[in-house]
Predict the 3D structure of the following.
Amino acid sequence: MKPEFGQLRACIYTNEDELTRFRSIVVNLVLATDIMDKDLGAQRKDRWARAFNSNEGPLPSQSSKENKETEVNRKATIVLEHLIQASDIAHTMQHWHVYRKWNERLFCEMYQAYKDGRSDKDPSEGWYEGEIGFFDFYIIPLAKKLETCGVFGVSSSEYLGYAEANRKEWVDKGRNLVKVYLERFKLRDSVGPGGGFSSTGDLMELALTEATEPASMSSASDHGSAIGLNLDEGSHIFDV
């Protein structure tokens, strides 16, 4: 370890045990960002249940200082894991325009990978349904957990509210937005790197405005099939 960071290390740990504990926390936080791993997801669910299950009675020796400290550490660790997960998808719990901006950038990144042959799946096929599943099975449950633990205080309900509002708006506007994402990507790609894309700003803004006008689903059955679509066919496959 480099000597110039000695003061920083002194603030984080003072002995080998604390260093080991800190390293363990960092490793767990990095692993927490792997939300595709079902085994890790199941372990996180179990840790959350043990830390925050109010129906679970106290342990016989829970009054001891050691057990209380263990309980606090367990809660702190699982909260940190959920915080790092939330930071990964923070745009989904912010204003609609923030969510839309970063959703398009992710789409373009994945479409570029598909175009370059680094991905076998065309993200435009199922992106709309995949986002709905992402909200229902990952984003909103995560926001509810953050509200439950109260880590953000009164802001916790605000993040949940944004997530639910974005989900609703995506259901209304998402299909057209995916078309706009694709057209913008193809137009930018046809112009070439750094070439003239800004000159199409008015056209693209018009297209985006039209795409985000409130739109109803074609039918109740269409809505139901979109919500119930197997997530393996969408753009995201996540377990909470």
Notes: The chain has a mean pLDDT of 79. The radius of gyration is 22 Å.
